[in-house]
Write a structure and sequence with these properties.
The protein is globular and about 75 Å long. Helix 2 crosses helix 3 and helix 2 packs across helix 18. It contains 18 helices and 5 strands. The longest helix has 29 residues. It has a 3-stranded mixed sheet with strand order 1-4-5. Strands 2-3 form a two-stranded antiparallel ribbon. By secondary structure, it is mainly alpha-helical. A hairpin with a 2-residue loop joins strand 4 and strand 5. It has one domain. Helices cover 64% and strands 4% of the residues.
């Protein structure tokens, strides 16, 4: 997948992302794949069917990434976000995961499920999306006229000092088999995650005979790009796969900019693709229906859930898909820690909700 100019390569990069995400959205809508539902079925009914589906997606991702990486077809060591970084901010992963788990339970679904429901006509999920987007945006971007973000104000002073500096990347292969990382990794909604990893690792540009990735091209922008071309942000062009919390913030920034095409990213196209795929399937299956809040308490629960998912998703560097499948597929220790924290946070919230419901009934 090598192109002669950045515009063509970037266009293919974005629209291929949209196509993969659209398939993902349609399939998730059709099959009712839901990570929160998986935890709910397990905690409340002892049914592990959807939890096994989640584990299967993780397994496909892990095996696929391991195989593609061993074959030299993808690069998941330098990614966006940096799952395998050699710094392990364990407190942020744990706290963010628990907050996200609580939030997705209160808001009736994770970030991916929020997008699926929007495609199916759920207006409640639009509010959830907007709240998450606002928090996610200002967790990373400074307030107007300031150099402070929500993260630097509320979390960095006390969470960052607890980070552990590792001597290797934080994936299990590198940590356990530092002398033979490739062998270690071989030992130690999956297909869509793999497709995205492959796509973002293999869209190339032939710049005057030198074949380079989109990220490398932008890093050398002044040498190869036309003088009047606008330089895009380099980070979102790294190898990556599906995650949905930070992209909600990216989408808000894109809309606030007046839909500046140079700000389009993998995350924005993935978000739009999932909604479009879900919408398409809901129309084809005639399951599209408008939904609104059933009561004031329903609104409050969704609002609180959205706030917690916004903070937790950015703090933990991902959601049930972003860390629970995509990050997990790289065997990054932080992703595994986040996955466990999300499940614990969600399960504990469901137990509390059950106790409160039983007390209310008698």
């Amino acid at each position: 997948m090598t192109y002669v100019d950045f515009a063509s390569a970037h266009s293919f990069f974005l629209w291929s992302t949209f196509a993969i995400a659209m398939i993902l959205g349609a399939v998730v809508n059709k099959t009712n794949f839901c990570t929160m539902g998986a935890v709910s079925d397990w905690v409340n009914m002892g049914d592990t069917g959807r939890m096994r589906a989640w584990i299967l997606a993780i397994a496909v991702g892990v095996l696929g990434v391991t195989g593609l990486e061993a074959a030299g077809l993808i690069n998941v060591t330098s990614t966006f976000p940096p799952y395998r970084q050699n710094s392990l901010p364990w407190l942020e992963y744990t706290l963010g995961g628990v907050l996200f788990g609580i939030g997705m339970t209160l808001a009736s679904g994770c970030g991916n499920k929020t997008l699926i429901r929007i495609g199916g006509g759920n207006l409640k999920s639009i509010m959830v999306l907007l709240v998450i987007a606002l928090i996610a945006y200002f967790m990373i971007n400074p307030f107007p006229g300031s150099d402070k973000t929500l993260y630097s104000t509320l979390f960095y002073p006390w969470t960052n000092p607890t980070a552990i500096a590792l001597s290797t990347n934080q994936d299990l292969g590198a940590m356990l088999f530092s002398d033979n990382v490739a062998t270690g990794r071989m030992l130690v909604v999956g297909l869509a995650v793999l497709a995205a990893w492959y796509l973002t690792s293999n869209v190339m540009i032939n710049a005057d005979g030198e074949v380079m990735s989109l990220q490398a091209y932008v890093q050398s922008w002044d040498f190869y790009a036309p003088a009047d071309a606008v330089r895009p942000d380099v980070a979102p062009l790294a190898s990556q796969s599906f995650t949905f919390i930070n992209p909600m913030g990216q989408t808000l920034g894109y809309a606030a900019s007046g839909f500046d095409r140079t700000l389009l990213t993998f995350g924005i196209m993935a978000l739009a693709g999932v909604i479009a795929g879900s919408l398409l399937w809901s129309l084809v299956s005639r399951s599209f229906r408008i939904e609104w809040f059933a009561s004031a308490s329903d609104f409050v629960n969704h609002l609180a859930g959205a706030i917690l998912m916004g903070f937790g998703g950015v703090l933990a560097m991902g959601c049930t898909v972003g860390q629970g499948i995509t990050g997990f597929s790289t065997l990054a220790l932080g992703s595994i820690l986040t996955f466990v924290a999300i499940v614990i946070g969600s399960a504990a919230t469901m137990k509390v909700q059950y106790i409160l419901m039983m007390r209310a009934e008698g």
